[in-house]
Amino acid sequence: MVLEGLGWTVDQLGRRDKSEPHRHVSGHELLEGLKDYALEYFGPLARTVLKLWGVRRSEDFGAIVFHLVEAQLLSRQESDSLDDFARGFDFRDALESGYRVRLPSRLGGAP
Question: What range does the domain containing 87 cover?
Answer without folding.
Answer: 2-13+25-97
